[in-house]
Structure formats: C-alpha cells, structure tokens
Amino acid sequence: MTERPEPPAIDAHAHVFTRAMPFTDTAWTRPDYDYPVEAYLADLDAHGIAFGVVTAASLFGEYNDYTLAALARHRRLRATVMLDQDTAPAELAVLRGQGVCGVRFQIPLSATLPDLGGYRFRRFVTRLADAGMHLELNLGGEQLSQMLPALADASVPVVVDHFGLLRGEGEMEGPGFGALLRSVALGRTWVKISAGFRLPAERLQTYAQRLLAEAGPDRLFWGSDAPFVGVEDRVTYAQTLDTLYRIVPDARIRRQMSDAALRFYFF
C-alpha cells in the first residue's frame, strides 16, 4: 500500500456559506447549496489538516456576518473579509481581535481600479497595516500590474490569490505575473497556490516551479478553494491535495510552505 504524503498543516483558501446569505446584485453565480463551516471543518479533519483560512467570496460582498460567527466558534480558523474603504480604525481593531487577518480586494476585470495614489485608498491600506492586517488581491493581470507597484511603498502586507494567474493575461509573460514577481522581491508580498483546477492542468507544475524558484517556499501558501464553486461536480477536496503533491513533490518544501502560512495567519 502506498503511503499518502503528509498533508499540509493549513488550508489557506476556502469559502463557507449558506443559501440564506444575500448575494450581491452582480454575483457571477449563485450556489443553490450550503457549504457551512461545519462541512469545511469536516473536510479538514478527513484529510488531516489542522487549520483553515476562510476567504471572503465576492458573491456576498461585504456581508461578513457568517464568517465572523464561524471565527467566534472555531479558534482553528482565520479569515479575510470584504470592507468599505472608509472602514474606521476602531472597527478594524475589533475585526482583528475576532480573527480577521486581512481584507480581500476583488473587482470585475472590466472595472476601473480606485485612485491608487489618492487619499482614500492610501488611508485604507495604511489603516490595514496599522491594524496588523494584509490586503488580499484577486485581480486581472493588467489590474495587478497597476495595483502592485502602487503598493510598493506602502507598509501593508499583500497576498495575491490563485498563482497570480487565474484572471491574468499572457500567463507567466503577462504584465500581472511580472509585477507579482517584482513585488515579491520587495519583501511584503505572498502568493497563494490555490484554485489550480481553474488553470490549465498541464501548466500547473511549471507555474509552481517558477514561483518556487523566484519567490521561494516562504512566500507561498496552499489553498484548496473549497467548495470549488462552479465546478463542484468535477473537483473533490482529495483531488486538490493530490494536485499539491504533484506540483510540489518535495515534502520539505511543502512543510516550509505550511510553516510560512502558519506564521502569517496565526502567529
């Protein structure tokens, strides 16, 4: 019998929700099922994973209530939320105390970025840094190529979702991925190796090898992207782990990634 590889200590990207939650008017899909926090924890337990990070889903906008309730009940979880840029420092401090580690920023590919040099945006990212939070980005390549340089002199840590490639153009030669690598080199940017099932399967190992070579395992986190919204009938939790073992075959490197994620989200 083949021994299964050691699982990661932490899943740094998953979504939890119920059908009772309100969808935004522009939600790209509207799941007709529940994936409550209990189901997510059961998936973690079934695969030997100790910790998880609940990631804000654009489908629900700034409705963070369910996530906050989950954090209150389960100390093994951390989360990102979506917030208005005018959120006050006092509210950020309360959220941080509840286990919120960062704010997710995602807009449609056709949407215009905020004024990145303007007072409102600069105030927001400065307040995040002051609160000990990070900014999590799920943006297109052109958007990343503008956003990341604008954050170069900011003190806020940055996490880029989904290899930095899911919504990008030009793959590893595109403007977003180039900006990502330059931002990582500055020392305050991390990348999630998540949602690989949404990218070309034959290219995943190449993507991972490039990120490992240029960013290193201390700057990479793994995430399942459970419950695989939009492809629930074609992806299982076990398959996302198998993909991780395939594209990062060295157990020592996977352990370094886990340790980096634990330090970032929990310690």
Automatic annotation (TrEMBL):
InterPro entries: Amidohydro-rel, Aro_Compnd_Degr_Hydrolases, Metal_Hydrolase. It holds the Pfam family Amidohydro_2. It comes from the Bacteria. Residues 10-267 form the Amidohydrolase-related domain. GO terms for molecular function: hydrolase activity. Gene3D superfamilies: Metal-dependent hydrolases. This is Amidohydrolase-related domain-containing protein.
